[in-house]
Amino acid sequence: MNHTHELFIASILGGAIGDALGYRVEFMKLDNIHSQFGKHGITELSIDPVTGKSLISDDTQMTLFTIEGLRWAYDRCSRRGIGSYAGSGTYQSYLRWYFTQTGEMPTEKEMIWLEPQLYEENDSLLNYKELFFQRAPGMTCLSALASGKMGTIGQPINHSKGCGGVMRVAPVGLFLHHEPEYAFKVATEIAAITHGHPTGYLSAGAFATIIAELINGKNLNESIITAISILKAYRLHRETLEAIEKAITFAAGNENIEHSIHQLGEGWIAEEALAIALYCALKRTDGSEALIISVNHDGDSDSTGAICGNILGAAYGLKAFPQDWIERIELKDLIIDRATKLATLCDKAFVS
């Protein structure tokens, strides 16, 4: 397998593993996690008795729809010679995700986006019944998409900085890894579709840049430095920057892990989710250990686990994760297929 292709697969699959690990304990307090799973918290993927798989949440669902949005936008822009990744495919793909969760589109005119598209080659995500299951979908994402308007940085849809904008943009960093600054910009625009607060979309930009630089062969510390450098050029970056710097400081220290994560936050908001994931990936280079600490806390465990998994996969490849964890993930084959398709399109679109 092409090494870069493996990193694409590992990043998306790693995100799904972290998502599935954390989904079981999302909304639970750490004391309750310890009470139910023992002093080390949850350390193994929970298996659904019906499917025999470890279930993914809305985080991985939306990540898959981001992949499709990028592919859709590239195809439309190539045919028309004009457009954007956010408005020419990703927004429309998110409307499809909205349909899977609600059974409707915001208005009648959006029904057109449910029709088969040329890039899909008769293999739409809408063909997969598992993606229609409601797995605690983010209310901000749902309400923003329900409005029938696409949020932009210039015309924000709301003032939310929830983590729903950042947890889904790893594919942007993968696809646009040749141009880290452009990856940052596109990720902010895609996050702003549903999250209008600057911290909500700037955290997404920083995350995508980190993923991009990992694919480019930089280590995690070097990738963070690049992201910080780009971040500082944007207005209203202070909140995101301080969260990232706090994660770096804590990871270099000897403070208790649970206490450090508690000080970083609970992950419900963008900069906290990114900071917790970065802290865990810096603190533990072993993939399973990093994912375990990334989900055992008060708060949005599936999102922090998903972001951490995306980072670990991009940094270390498939070897970062236990093979039995990989095999247990719901829709594993679809995830691998879509990550491979994104990598193949990247090869075609950005010849280095």
TrEMBL record:
Binds 2 magnesium ions per subunit. The keyword Hydrolase applies. It comes from Lederbergia galactosidilytica. Keywords: Hydrolase, Magnesium, Metal-binding. It comes from the Bacteria. Mg(2+) 1 binds at residues 57-59, 300, 303. PANTHER family: ADP-RIBOSYLGLYCOHYDROLASE, ADP-RIBOSYLHYDROLASE ARH3. Mg(2+) 2 binds at residue 302. Its cofactor is Mg(2+). GO terms for molecular function: hydrolase activity; metal ion binding. The keyword Metal-binding applies. Belongs to the ADP-ribosylglycohydrolase family. Pfam families: ADP_ribosyl_GH (PF03747). SUPFAM superfamilies: ADP-ribosylglycohydrolase. Gene3D superfamilies: ADP-ribosylation/Crystallin J1. This is ADP-ribosylglycohydrolase.
